Amino acid sequence: MFTLISLMVLGITLIALCWFVLRDLAVVEIRDLEIRGLDTGTPEGRQLADAIEVAAGEMTTLHVKQEVLTEEVSRFPRVKSAEIEADFPNGATVIVTQRENGSIFGEDEDALLIASDGTVLGSPGDQYELLPLIGDGEPPKGGRLRGIALEQAIVLGSAPTELKTYVDRSDSTENGVEVTLSNGLVLLFGGPEKAVEKWKAAATVIADPELGDVGYVDLTVPMRPAVGIGTEPTGEG
After folding, report:
1. Which of 102, 179, 216, 230 could be bridged to 116 by S-S, CB 3.0 to 4.6 A?
2. Angle CA(30)–CA(36)–CA(40) in degrees, nearest 5?
3. Which residues partner with 82 through β-bridges?
4. Is the pLDDT reported for residue 46 higher than 60?
């Protein structure tokens, strides 16, 4: 019995040793790499693709190192996540999920491009005139907005595509986050919770042909949006 157990242990040990040797051999290195979710036509996209290729070069299809990829792409705030899937013997696919442009924090040379989740993406470039402005709040810390600035970033970043071009700016008041459209209409969101539902309610109200001349839409309770005349919403739904 002892001999049989010893042989089994030895066999398992040898198999493990062979595996650790074989998994890093050149014969199973990643040679056919596909990257999805990335536009390599931009300088940022090409730099990211290069970083992903560097990370993949440290792996094989039998020894995938997700942590290496995660660390390599962490230098790019645009990247929300990057996952790699191996395809034996020499293929691999990396799926990149990127953060979307949401708003602008600051003005002129101090302006920063902010993602829809409050992450700082860098200089706004040609997006400065295209995205809404966060009206107030503390400067970002650790590459991310905080407090009332973050609340505004989340609200602005949740705006549906059909309304984005009409959004001018946001402000934080005693009633919560208020968004001003290019036509002067104010949308009262309260907190950033259920921002997507609140934007849907706003779109429905704005599309109503019988809306008339109103000053604000109270969206604090998205199932029961309320409209009012004036420029200072009370927040009372």
Report:
1. 102
2. 95
3. 96
4. yes
